[in-house]
Design goal:
- The chain is α+β, with helices and mostly antiparallel strands.
- Helices cover 23% and strands 26% of the residues.
- It is built from four helices and eight strands, in the order βαββαββββαβα.
Length: 141
């Protein structure tokens, strides 16, 4: 995953816990979002001491657009927003799963675990180009 767009709402301990956790894919997942089960999140001052229009929960934010692949934090439940997921709303998205990893998501079943690692946007784009090249008919000869 890549950091953002709202990674600054999670504190250092929360980031470390996210990366050190085996997140279990919930049976409550569907074609709009993959719900993950794991430990509670901790937040920065920005999330806990904010203007009232952002909502009362630390994971609430003024409505904004969601990228496909966003790890949407609805309260304490992270949800990976896939192709049929919402395009916007009022929850933070501390991380985004890049399209180059969607093939792995598509093969997942409830009960399986994910372990995330941070990559840069440049690395995600390079992996997407490599995958496209591998899947191009000319490369299949």
């Amino acid at each position: 995953m890549v950091a953002g767009p709202n990674d600054d709402w999670i504190d250092a301990e929360g980031h470390a816990r996210f990366l050190a956790t085996d997140w279990k894919l919930s049976s409550k997942s569907d074609r709009g979002g993959f719900r993950l089960e794991g430990p509670d999140w901790t937040f920065t001052e920005r999330a806990t001491n904010k203007l009232p229009e952002h909502g009362s929960d630390p994971a609430n934010i003024v409505d904004h657009g969601y990228p496909v692949g966003a790890i949407n934090l609805a309260g304490q439940t992270p949800i990976i927003l896939v192709n049929d997921g919402p395009s916007g709303g009022g929850f933070i998205n501390p991380y985004t799963v890049p399209q180059c990893a969607f093939w792995k998501l598509g093969q997942s079943r409830p009960g399986e675990s994910y372990r995330f690692r941070v990559i840069s946007v440049d690395e995600a784009q390079a992996q997407a180009r490599e995958m496209t090249q591998r899947c191009t008919p000319d490369s299949l000869e």
